[in-house]
Specification:
Residues 394-423 are annotated as: Disordered. It is a multi-pass membrane protein. This protein is an all-alpha fold and 423 residues long. It has one domain (12-409): Up-down Bundle (Growth Hormone, Chain: A). The protein contains 17 helices and no strands. The chain has helices at 2-9, 14-24, 26-43, 46-74, 76-99, 104-114, 120-131, 135-167, 171-188, 212-241, 248-267, 275-292, 299-310, 313-327, 333-361, 364-384, 386-393.
């Protein structure tokens, strides 16, 4: 398995930008849970924590495509330096507001500013697409990125919980801030692997002319996001109701460890099964896994079930990323994946908001039910769009190959149909 990943990491600069990107993405795994914990500890309200987290995630989702276009147009270095400064300002303001128990609206403003982070999850994926040329290598690279994301989600939530509950409530936010600044400094120094800017007048932006398959997986990501948003806050509440709030980060870490393992195993194999079929199967297993969490009677059972549910996360997200990579051109990859992050972000926001209210009115199990509902929605949407995914990613030629090659391996460009008016 390791030989598969070693074959892509031997490319010049690959190890450096992979490590730097991992550090720069620390806010993806820690910022949301750190804000939830900081607000809940300072204001003693899960509903308020859910609202603040939701506002931040909605702004993050809204900024993803514009900042991704900016990155594609002027380059990662030129775009991400000011965006990093904005994040530092917003995160600092959020810490000050929470620690002085300022008004909730000021927390909304602070977290909104801090959520202007840029397309953190797409920067290294765009570099892989720029560096590699084989479809199989890109599949492996995206699986590696998914696994690295899960490394963050293994350690990040546990670290955030320990820092917030045992040391200082805003310390998790501080670690996010430092990680982003240091990681981005190292990443942006790697000029050799940075994709060339597209330029303002190239006319190659996706705009609203999204391939149907990108629309489909973005809507599926909505359900996955609702699952994630409800799960984080529900686990914190479940652990507190059990008298062990400090274990909430450990539970999330175990789920992420399962996802890391699932992602590594999934990416180490080059699958002959069609991509759209793998997407359907992954969503089904994810819905079953997170649905089972609702019935966990205690923390121990929740943790064990969470480990198995986690096995399905990274493969499902890898499939969604790969769908986008198959149907957009290389110079549109950051923007294309940004639509996935929009779907994910909107889902996380509503999942956290709704789950926070359910927990206040009922209990943590109601929040876990919301998480299961999000996973079920993702599966229903995958089934509904299976035909779209199939047409977008299958070759169907005489050789019987299942999956289409990426645009970089085709002579003709990919047709970009306009977005239907009702969407």
């Amino acid at each position: 398995m390791l030989d598969t990943y070693r074959s892509i990491l031997i490319h010049p600069g690959a190890k450096a930008f992979a490590f730097a990107g991992l550090l720069a993405r620390l806010p993806i795994s820690m910022f949301n849970i750190s804000m939830i914990l900081m607000v809940q500890l300072q204001y003693d309200s899960y509903a308020m924590a859910g609202r603040v987290a939701a506002i931040g995630t909605l702004v993050w989702a809204a900024q993803t495509v514009p900042t991704a276009r900016l990155v594609d147009r002027i380059g990662q270095r030129a775009a991400m330096i000011p965006l990093t400064i904005i994040f530092v300002a917003g995160a600092s303001m959020a810490i000050w507001t929470a620690m002085t128990r300022g008004p909730e609206w000021l927390l909304w403003v602070s977290v909104a500013i801090a959520s202007l982070q840029g397309p953190l999850g797409s920067l290294t994926r765009a570099r892989w697409s720029h560096l590699l040329h084989s479809d199989k290598d890109i599949h492996t690279a995206f699986a590696l990125e998914g696994a690295l994301d899960e490394v963050l989600f293994v350690g990040g939530p546990a670290l955030a919980t320990i820092l917030a509950t045992l040391v200082w409530p805003p310390l998790g936010v501080v670690v996010c801030l430092v990680g982003l600044v240091v990681g981005m400094t190292i990443l942006l120094a790697q000029r050799g692997t940075e994709p060339a800017p597209r330029g303002a007048d190239s006319g190659s932006s996706l705009g609203w002319k999204l391939p149907p398959a990108v629309i489909a997986v973005s809507l599926v990501a909505l359900g996955i996001g609702a699952m994630f948003g409800a799960f984080d806050i529900s686990v914190v509440a479940f652990a507190e109701e059990s008298g062990h709030q400090t274990l909430s980060g450990v539970i999330i870490a175990v789920v992420s460890a399962g996802s890391l393992l699932g992602g590594l195993l999934y990416g180490a194999r080059h699958w002959r099964t069609a991509l759209w079929k793998r997407t359907v199967i992954g969503a089904l297993l994810m819905a079953a896994g997170f649905g089972s969490l609702v019935f966990a009677p205690n923390i121990a059972v929740l943790t064990v079930l969470g480990l198995f549910a986690g096995l399905t996360i990274a493969p499902t997200l890898t499939n969604a990323d790969t769908v986008v990579q198959r149907v957009v051109r290389r110079d549109q990859i950051t923007e294309g994946m940004a639509w996935l992050r929009i779907g994910m972000g909107v889902g996380i926001a509503f999942g956290a908001w709704i789950a926070g209210g359910l927990i206040e009115q009922a209990d943590a199990r109601a929040g876990l039910g919301m998480s299961a509902l999000g996973a079920g929605l993702a599966f229903v949407l995958v089934i509904a769009f299976a035909g779209v995914l199939r047409r977008g990613t299958e070759r169907g030629d005489a050789e019987g190959a299942d999956d289409a090659p990426p645009p970089s391996e085709r002579e003709e460009s990919v047709e970009q149909p306009p977005l239907p008016p009702h969407m």
